[in-house]
Amino acid sequence: MVGGALLVMAAALWLLGPTVVGRSLNGVAHPSPPPPSDEARTLHGSIEVVDLHADALLWRRDLLARGRWGHVDVPRLLEGRVAVQAFTVVTKVPRGANIESNRSDSDLIGALALLQGWPATTWRSLLARALFQARRLRDTAARSDGALALLQTRADLEAHLARRRGGTAVTAGFLGLEGAHALEGSLESVDLAFEAGFRLIGLTHFFDNEAGGSAHGTGQGGLTDFGARVVARMEALGMLVDLAHASPALIDDVLAVSTRPVLVSHTGVRATCDNARNLDDRRLRGVAESGGVVGIGLWRTAVCGDHPSDWARAVRHAVGVVGVGHVALGSDWDGAVRSMIDAAGAVHLVDALMKMRFSDDDVRQIMGGNAIRLLLGSLPSAQQVAENRDPAD
């Protein structure tokens, strides 16, 4: 009896544990917000929304079905008119993760991989976890009957935008990697990630790694020699360098050596929410001067609030520092955060920006135009992808 009971408990944990965890960590602050204005609805209907950060691939959900929890799936992306969604891949999170100081000697994602039935190769290998989640996105796109496109080249993005502008209800995603620790100290892993479809790599997450210091690590140092080689290889391949979670020293070092635009995919600004997670004005300017963009997040630590007006207030400050052409949306949906809205609620962000007296053109740029411009200028050509593919493939 005891053995049978333990078996039932183990099965329940396997079946329900990840769902319970995911549901509890990825809540929505305002599931039934007040209706947006008619003007916001009209403007939203003409906007191509782009979000620069979501961790939806981490959780055991079918992204083609509208979920009862979490923030992102294809039906909600379509409802929110999200033209492009960055699907970012998390491979390691330490116990007690916080924004002040974390060691790297614990790993919660290994347990989550085991509970969710990921392949045995992912239980210990960070690179295997990244490649597995990349396969999940490719498989989801393949099963979507065209509703979800996978973007790997400029031509992919141009074709996708043409379909949408022709009236077809479709969304698209591209892959990002959250933390260069997933490269496992090997420069060759950059090429493996590129071949798997990754077009963005965030150098750090919650802890320092071989590439450099995290804003939440114990050392919080700058760019290492290995990190400099990673940045150079990424630029050669046509991959975007993401400085979200980077220490101030790492941001400064990357800005000094990069030759292409960089971005901060999801963050806040210290002027409206002063903590170690967010950017000061000097580093906002540095990212903008590279030609890049800063994605403003939708959770409390980013903007010190859980209402779209709090997000719009942070956007207003960032625009005042670097201009409207360098600010974007970086939600952190499904990133173990309580988001102010889910993907279906993007119209409420439009409404908040209009109430902040941004012009219609400014709203279009912030909600997607700036990110599209960055992607069109940064994604590799189809010829570059072919040239970088292993001839043996």
Largest sheet entry? 6 strands, parallel
- Distance, first to last CA: 53 Å
Give the SSE string.
HHEHEHHEHEHEHEHEHEHHEHHH
Per the CATH scheme, the topology name is TIM Barrel
Tally the helices: what do you get? 15
**DSSP helix fraction:** 40-55%
Structural class: alpha/beta
Backbone CA Rg: 20 Å
Strand content: 5-15%
CATH superfamily: Metal-dependent hydrolases
What is the name of the CATH architecture?
Alpha-Beta Barrel
Instruction: Work out the count of structural domains.
Output: 1
Spans of 5+ residues with little confidence (pLDDT < 50)?
1-13
Give a structural overview.
The chain has 393 residues and is an alpha/beta fold. It has one domain: Metal-dependent hydrolases (TIM Barrel, Alpha-Beta Barrel), CATH 3.20.20. The chain is built from 15 helices and nine strands. The strands form two sheets. Strands 1, 2, 3, 4, 5 and 6 form a six-stranded parallel sheet that branches. The chain has a three-stranded parallel sheet with strand order 7-8-9. Helix 2 packs across helix 13 and helix 12 crosses helix 13. The longest helix is centred in the first third of the chain and has 24 residues. The N terminus is likely disordered.
Structural topology:
Elements: H1 2-25, H2 38-44, E1 49-54, H3 74-79, E2 82-90, H4 108-115, H5 126-143, E3 148-150, H6 154-165, E4 171-178, H7 188-195, E5 198-202, H8 225-237, E6 240-242, H9 248-257, E7 264-267, H10 281-289, E8 294-296, H11 300-303, H12 308-322, E9 327-329, H13 346-355, H14 360-378, H15 382-388
Parallel strand pairs: 1-2, 2-4, 3-4, 4-5, 5-6, 7-8, 8-9
Helix pairs in contact: 2-13, 12-13
